[in-house]
Amino acid sequence: MKKFSQEDPPVFEQGPIRPPSEAYSLLIRVTRNCPWNHCSFCPVYKQAMFSIRPVAHVKNDIDLVHKYVDILRDNIDGTGGIPPELGSLLGLESLFLFDNQLSGDIPPELGDLASARAIYLNGNQLSGAIPPELGDLLSIEDLFLYSNQLTGSIPPELGDLLTLQYLYLNDNQLTGSIPSNLGYLDNLQRLLLNGNQLSGVIPRQLGNLSSLLYLQIGKFLRQDLSL
Ligand code: SF4
Predict the structure, then answer these.
(1) What is the distance in A from the centroid of ligand 1 to the CA of 27?
(2) Domains, the chain, ranges and CATH?
(3) Exposed (0-12), middle (13-18) or buried (19+): which is 216, by Cβ within 10 Å?
(4) Of 41, 45, 59, 168, which is the most exposed, with the fewest CB atoms less than 10 Å away?
């Protein structure tokens, strides 16, 4: 397993925004900010000067990206599982491993990815329980675990993910009740739990989800909720 040393921090620079059409692309940052910066509707680069990054810094970023790719290729291809060591990639912002044939458990170490804004593990053959440690993902906005073979109950710790916008747990084999803690997710816009074997009542605390636009629980479906 390749690891990063202290002298070689696992972070490469990313800009603050990217076009939706490039959501799944790797972008290497060559410039910073906007050379025009006069569009009145655009707050993104206000107070920030345009600059061109030094070639050496860009090359260093490319080397870091190469190491990330090596780690993923060496480990995921060889075992069919998600390597726990991915949790050491502390600068990782997006982990897209969807629609493969990954099997085994979701490593609890993924909860260490404090910079991760998107984790897509959907469309695999992952099994076992959802690790409560995923409740430590301090920056997560999209958590897609749907269309796997996950069992056990939904960890109440997911109610700690206050930055979460999309939570897709549908089409697994989850059991137990819906944790009332999910009602703490003030930024949650989409919650999909259908296609599981959940039981009990829908917690009234879900009525606190003031940002919720789309909720799907089993055969129950409401869109554009006004809560
Ligand atoms: S100010 Fe904003 S919208 Fe206008 S060109 Fe620059 S980045 Fe684009």
Answers:
(1) 18
(2) 1-79 (no CATH), 86-227 (3.80.10.10)
(3) middle
(4) 41
